[in-house]
Amino acid sequence: MNKVFIGLLSASILALGAGADCNNPLLGTFEVATADKTAGPQTISGLNYCKSLQSGQSCCTKTFVNSFQTKADALLEELTDIVSDRDKLLVKVRTQTIPDLASKFSALVTAANKASSKLGANDANSALIKSYTQLQAQLNTLVPQLKSAFANFQISRAACVVKLVTFQTAAWCYACNPDYDATAFTNDVLSISGDLEDTLTDSCYEYLTLAEAQSKLLSLSYMSSTLDALTTALNAVANGDANAASLLAAAILLNPSAEVTGTSNKVVSLPDGCTENSCSWIVDSLFKGGVIDKASLALGGEITSVDGETGGDEDNGDDDGQEPTDPVAPTDPVEPTDPVAPTDPVEPTDPVEPTDPVEPTDPVEPTDPVEPTDPVEPTDPVEPTDPVEPTGRLLSGERVGGRILAGSWNPSEDESGVAVTFEVNPANVDNSSAWRQGGFVGCSIALLATLLL
Asked: Given this model, what pLDDT does residue 128 score?
């Protein structure tokens, strides 16, 4: 590297660094009002939050930045409302709803026993009915396990919420920072660094796994109407009713997710590919672009339908049930067009007559060899120049002060200075209630399995 190259590189860096502005895409992402933005980068004294803004310039007003604690408290309150409803629901399902299903399972077993001779050993319906009875057996061990894990579920949830909301407040600070890195955005969406992904995975993975386990019990609780319909259909089969086949077919097609309304009632699962070492879903969905998906965070995973299909809900904290949309009517089939008539074959042209061969030219006489020149004497090594002081936005792979550069965002955890706390048991639910499992023990699961094999 020589002085000329270093000079050019320095000039390029300075040119790149001169672009500090208030066009950060996060200002639009967070819908910062015009009244809350400054006309351009300004040095503002008296800021209570955001280290990077206190030591540099800001694109947001003092009033707006100093409201970040209030904004964080409102976000935490919204999350608290959802998890409180969730906790009350989970405890109710475990202590009341699931035990009350015992009579429904028993009725299903009795009806299946009566209808078994008419269903046939290889009937597909027999296999499905058998799977419901297997769920009954699993409940005897699953429910006590989930009761024991509930306290850890709440503790891990609080840790995950605190970590994510802390970085959410840091994203608010970054939105107001005129020294943002433009290369960290793709289509105006902020790219989260791998280091931050690792930090969030460490903080949230346990919560996601425990939330999925609690959610499994919730999904079973939505089978009440399905069990009733299957029992009615099997009794019709046993009695030889004329409508038995249609009743059974309708019962098999019932979708338990139709009973699920409201955000706090949703079923969640651990996202595909999410492990304790890596969970890209956290930065791709849960905290995409530096914005928390409130429903997914409060519920603890990827929202799914009861039958396991993911991506069915896109709400972000609203508690209203969604009405199903009408099915799309099929379009009319496209009429085939007439076949294209073949064109006449192309007549072959006359063959090209070969030309006379080219006579070889006389060989080129070799020139005299070039005499070697004297070796170039080495010059003195180039003395390094003083480092260039960065200004504005610097495109580099290093961390400069509180700013993260080189195409991704990785803030310090104490960037905002906003206090973030979250209660472990905000609804003060009683997790000590005993589970009445006696109703399940007396069911003839083994007998039903034998009859339906």
From this structure: 62
